[in-house]
Amino acid sequence: MSMPLDSDGFLRRECPTCEREFKWFSSPDGEGATPEAGGYFCPYCGIQAPTNSFFTAAQIELAKNVVLRDLVGPELEKVGNSLPRNKRPGDLVSIEFSATVPPKMDPLVETDDMRRVDFECHPSEPVKVLEAWDRDVHCLVCGAPAARR
Ligand SMILES: [Zn+2]
Ligand SMILES: [Zn+2]
Prior knowledge:
The protein is an alpha+beta fold and 149 residues long. It is built from one helix and six strands. The strands form two sheets. The protein has a four-stranded antiparallel sheet, with no helix packed on it. It has a two-stranded antiparallel ribbon with strand order 3-4.
């Protein structure tokens, strides 16, 4: 499943702790800073979480939809097709089988919102935060607050 980037190459993320959305820079493979073993720090609350725990609610919904449609859907169909269609004489029971696979969701779109913040400690890992956020912004990699302008 591919997730859209905004026009500056940022990917929308959501902190699993404070549930605020931000964006991190999606570096080409091998060019970004390596996160600590404990994961990335949230730019808002500064709490560290594993790097794979920052999916937004919309990204999780879409991932579930893709799994249901692509993996579960064909299996359900197989089960349905393997069941006897018509009751034959002598059958004591007939089996009713129905399953619904959800319709395909629209792909996500990424708008060019939020304010970019750069870090002196890790210049290769800028973030974007909500325009209204006026408190410290923490570095994803080391958790240090960005210098205020
Ligand atoms: Zn947070
Ligand atoms: Zn840093």
